[in-house]
Amino acid sequence: MLLINQEHQLPIFWQEGDAYSLFYAPGYLVVAARLLAADLWQDLQRPESQTPAARRLRQWAETAVHTRQSALTAPFAPVCLTLYLHNQCNLRCPYCYADPSPRSTPRLDVDTVHAAARLVAENCQQQQRPFTLVCHGGGEPTLNQPHLAQVLAGVQAIAAAAALSLFRYIATNGVMPTAKAHWLAQQFDLVGLSCDGPAAIQSRQRPLANGQNSTPYVERTARILHEHQTPLHVRVTITPFSVMQQVEIAEYICRRLQPEEIHVEPVYRAGRARTAVLPDADQFVDHFLQAQQVAAAYGARWLTSGSRLQEIHGPYCHLFRDVLHLVPGDVASACFKTSTSPQAGQQGLQIGQMGDGRFTLNQPHITALRQQLHPLPPPCQDCFNQYHCARDCPDNCPLEDGETAVPSFRCRVQKKLAQVQLTQMGAGLWAKARSQDGIAEGRVMTEIKRLGD
């Protein structure tokens, strides 16, 4: 797609086809028959567009620019509390970005968690938004059930006292006793279960700490969650070993685990996989799209987070996502790859800590980090996907690695998947355009839902 509004610095893009052309502004798509496309193109060059389609494209482009700028200038006021409760794990995944220990490790202090929860609750009240609690890792958050229960009880009480609705999410490897799985199903509104596929893949990529296969535990936990009708998503990590097996992975997960959504991510180059070889980008996309069709036949969504056309977003930095992320050592970190307070301090990512009985944020440091992380790399500035792309995060960070060579693996994957989605949406709109004077338009969010139905 070509940037066509350079003079007015608006992100409006054009792609010419044999029968019709696509015109795209972040969040909005217009399809015009070939005979009409030239006039629409000319109209978009004017300071004041005349046609309704051109005006709407400009409005969406202007909104995208404003939204992206607001991510830099708006106060950091988190409405989501993400907790790495500890760094102990009962699995030994060779690619884990957190590199946890099989032994007991320091835990988040409960009083610190509750102080941070009060800060988040204040923000939620002021913004009239629900409170979101995420229990993640780090390690496996369910290993110390009494600690998790104490944290939950306190956060629930704080949300209730503030008259806030509370959404509780946990990411788990699913390896736990039956009784704990039943308890888990009753405590959380959504469970994210990590599973990389059938036993041959799971045993290689997500073995128990003793080297045994974790598959039976994962399947049992999924069954228990369904017994309680607890919503279930599955998280899949794709490696060079599994990249060409995505169809088999989708088939297995849909049959055996039956989630509503399957979130698929290429392996992160961090932690134990710091020097990992990444999958081939074209292979990843081709097999991803095939697996997506398999999942759709089961009524499940096969997704990846690197490019989300329905959102204006950049990298995964918490500073742009209203997330307060606590790690053991009782500090807040700006990056999800950070799993301990020494890491946060050494990397310059510590953005909050306890002080005088309250959890306080270092707003000047947050502002400085945002200013370093926000700018688009020069090679991205003409890209149609620039408003919906995590860039090279989390493999490379401007704070550590400087400017990434583009096109990187993630750049190619995210751009190609976004292009496929827009092409599919365009084909659907073209069917309307042929009966509507040769032009049709639609919101990306609406078209994504239509494609999913």
Number of helical stretches of at least 4 residues: 14
Task: Report the portion of residues in β strands.
Answer: 15-25%
Mean pLDDT level: 93
- SSE string, helix = H, strand = E? EEEEHHEHEHEHEHHEHEHEEEHEEHHHEH
Low-confidence stretches: none
**CATH topology term of the largest domain:** TIM Barrel
Notes on the protein architecture:
40% of the residues lie in helices and 18% in strands. The protein has 453 residues and is α/β, with parallel strands linked by helices. The strands form two sheets. It has an eleven-stranded mixed sheet with strand order 11-10-9-8-7-6-5-12-13-14-15. Helix 3 runs parallel beside helix 4 and helix 9 packs across helix 13 (409-433). It starts with a strand and ends with a helix.
List the helices and strands and how they pair.
Elements: E1 2-3, E2 13-16, E3 20-25, E4 28-33, H1 34-45, H2 52-73, E5 80-84, H3 110-127, E6 131-136, H4 145-161, E7 166-172, H5 178-187, E8 190-194, H6 199-205, H7 215-227, E9 232-238, H8 246-257, E10 261-266, H9 281-297, E11 301-303, E12 323-327, E13 331-333, H10 341-346, E14 350-355, E15 358-361, H11 363-373, H12 398-401, H13 409-433, E16 439-443, H14 444-452
Parallel strand pairs: 5-6, 5-12, 6-7, 7-8, 8-9, 9-10, 10-11
Antiparallel strand pairs: 1-2, 2-3, 3-4, 4-16, 12-13, 13-14, 14-15
Question: Can you summarize this structure?
Answer:
With 453 residues, the chain is an alpha/beta fold. The protein has helices spanning 34-45, 52-73, 110-127, 145-161, 178-187, 199-205, 215-227, 246-257, 281-297, 341-346, 363-373, 398-401, 409-433, 444-452; strands at 2-3, 13-16, 20-25, 28-33, 80-84, 131-136, 166-172, 190-194, 232-238, 261-266, 301-303, 323-327, 331-333, 350-355, 358-361, 439-443. Helix content is 40%, strand content 18%.
